[in-house]
Amino acid sequence: MNKIHNLSNQIARPTYEIDVNEKIICYDSSLPSIHGENVILIGFKRRILILAFDFGTAEEPNFEYKKIKEIAESETKILKLCSQVIARNIVFASCSNYTINVFSANETEANCLTKIDAHSSYINSIDFSDEYIASGSDDHTCKIFSVKDNYEQHSVLNFSASVTCVKFNPEELNKLLISVKNGNLFIYCLKLRQSLYSFYTHAPLMYFDWSIKNPCIVAAIAYDQIFYFDISKPDIPIYSKRLNDVGKIISIHPHNPLISAVICNRAATELKVVHQKSTISNLFSTKIIAYSGNVTWHSSYLIAGSDRKICFYKIPIA
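User: That's the sequence. What structure does it adopt?
Assistant: Structure tokens below.
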């Protein structure tokens, strides 16, 4: 079993931080295998900033970065990078209330490819592959749009409560996992256009994540508890862990599905790292001001937006 040093008694300072001098509304970041370089999107009240990072190596780390592009865009609530490069451009989606905007950008230009009036209420989640965009909304629907068919609507799925999170399987992009606030998780096959099966946590179900290392593993947050499922046998959770707090966001470590980062508290003001089978409640904990409502991993670095800063925390895993 991999081990992580216990930092739970510390209010950790970031290993590195970027002060952007403006309140961060949302952000997203990529793994280097996705875009060939490390890309971070930062959404502010009236603009989106695209940065490219060079983290160096494990032996000689650095945090050099350059600005690729800045795009004027107001009311951005969610940002999501496309999982693959399209025509050598960084392609991503942004959400503002009920609408999805799709952008393509490089160092010389940025274009809005399309605007999708997707929902009749607030969008809570989007995911973006090279073939599809999926979105979940308070209007009780998940909608799927085909990238290759000029973003035409592919499917509309209706549920009995708000759709809180949507994510494509990291290996099988034709499979979409959908969480509904009433506690249900559904796996939908885009090729067959039908639901394959569903499983239950409890309400309110707020968020989940697939493991990149083992895409059969899903971790879902329902109020103060994390449920771990193996989707090859999803009838009951393989494990559950109580947070002793209200969970908002979860992100599974890319190399170890037993380790997850969690944003907690009703105001999303604490960042934790937990181990699925550890008796220690928090392996790492620090206070943040998480307007961004997101947390991502880059190898052993944990990345979170906090007020006016993007913070990088070195999480030592032995």
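Residues 1-10 have pLDDT under 50 and may be disordered.
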